[in-house]
Amino acid sequence: MVLSVQIPKEYAYVVLNLVAYAFLNTWMGIQVGKARKKYNVPYPALYAIESENKEAKLFNCVQRGHQNSIEYMAVFFVTLLVGGVQHPLISAGLGAIYIISRFFYFKLYSTGNPENRVKPV
């Protein structure tokens, strides 16, 4: 039995989504690094401890915004890549919406108020 899969030319838009998400994720990581310096949270601590750092909540919100995006990245990539084989334009469009949503989720979460992450812009 031979399995043949035809990749449509529109699949390039799906790949473009992956590249865009990689840039977004890198940018979020840089923001965490900046917050780590600003709020004085040394490595290897993943989160700041509120009893030791009065600005722990502010740093932790930035860290959680990035960490949450990493946690869902594998699901997003698999769904995008597999769905894109059959429906590349729909997958690319939904992927772009997801990436934009992730940007605003991160920005609003990073305000230091976790409730902001679920409020409409």
UniProtKB/TrEMBL annotation:
It comes from the Eukaryota. The keyword Protein biosynthesis does not apply. SUPFAM superfamilies: MAPEG domain-like. InterPro entries: MAPEG, MAPEG-like_dom_sf, Membr-assoc_MAPEG. Its EC number is 4.4.1.20. Gene3D superfamilies: Membrane associated eicosanoid/glutathione metabolism-like domain (1.20.120.550). GO terms for cellular component: endoplasmic reticulum; mitochondrial outer membrane; nuclear envelope. Pathway: Lipid metabolism; leukotriene C4 biosynthesis; Lipid metabolism; arachidonate metabolism. Pfam families: MAPEG (PF01124). Its main location: mitochondrion. It is found in: Mitochondrion outer membrane. The chain crosses the membrane at residues 12-30, 74-100. GO terms for biological process: leukotriene metabolic process; lipid metabolic process. GO terms for molecular function: glutathione peroxidase activity; glutathione transferase activity; leukotriene-C4 synthase activity. It is a multi-pass membrane protein. PANTHER family: MICROSOMAL GLUTATHIONE S-TRANSFERASE. This is Glutathione S-transferase 3, mitochondrial. It comes from Rhynchospora pubera.
